[in-house]
Design a protein that fits this description.
By secondary structure, the protein is an alpha+beta fold. Helices cover about 45% and strands about 15% of the residues.
Length: about 190
Amino acid sequence: KVPELKVPTWTTSKLSNGAQLIVSERRGLPLISLSITFQGGANQFESADKLGVAAFTTAMMREGTKTRDADALALALQMLGTNVGAGISDESGSVSFLSTTDKFAPTLDILADMLLNSTFPAPAVGRLRAQRLVALANQNAQPGFIGDRVFSRVLYGTAHPFGQLPDESTIKAVTRDDVVSFHKEYFQPA
């Protein structure tokens, strides 16, 4: 017999900043999972000469805020037993965490701090760029990775976002100002 699908109920409301809030409760566990999802992704917000700026931006959000440096952020999250993750894919982006109910408020405060007050320190941009260049060099030695890159370019062409992939020149072209600008444009309510 096919099992019956039980979809949890949810409520929706619109916040004063235009964002839509969806809440689905399951009271059996003392956990809260929060995810803020943004419409559109790298394909809609990156320019062809700055491919990879979205990934730089989300990685840089952990490098410090106006109130905490990278070490203080990491320590605060470690003390709460949680992690705030951020990522932007081709078509959407999100910032999220999973916490115990008693640690929800301080974890939400850290997420808000990262989202609203990230400082994007210049030395971290250089370090991250170096890491990405090494990772790209390692990937370019893998036949499967090379095949995927060639396939995407052949299938979609270089004018289509699916055929445009970060390479050494685009990674080197991303600056701190690009990261700050992308963050300001992308992470908006509604």
